[in-house]
Design goal:
By secondary structure, the protein is mainly alpha-helical. It is 63% helix and 0% strand. The chain has a domain at 13-48. It is flat. It starts with 8 loop residues before the first helix and ends with a helix.
Length: 89
């Protein structure tokens, strides 16, 4: 019978953390380099308006009414409250 000692898990964990940090920093640098102006990139300050409400309503004739949207929001609120309740029990 041979006596084998498992590798130190903290060494693997530390290497993994260093690798994850390098990947995230590289992504951040890439996003910052791609920004077109001061409001773009990794941390946009504003979001450009692509459509107005009137344009959306005109394009989506017969779509969801305001009552439908409110009803859907109430359903989502109910689901979110149920999930929070499950987590806190």
């Amino acid at each position: 019978m041979t006596d084998t000692t498992p590798a130190d898990p903290t060494i693997d964990d530390a290497a993994e953390v260093i690798e994850q940090k390098a990947v995230r920093l590289a992504k951040r640098e890439r996003l910052l380099a791609e920004r077109a102006d001061a409001a773009g990139g990794a941390y946009p300050v504003t979001v450009p308006v692509t459509d107005t409400i009137a344009e959306l309503r005109e394009r989506d004739e017969g779509g969801a009414s305001d009552a439908d949207v409110r009803r859907a929001r109430r359903c989502m609120d109910h689901v979110e409250r149920a999930q929070v309740t499950e987590l806190t029990e």
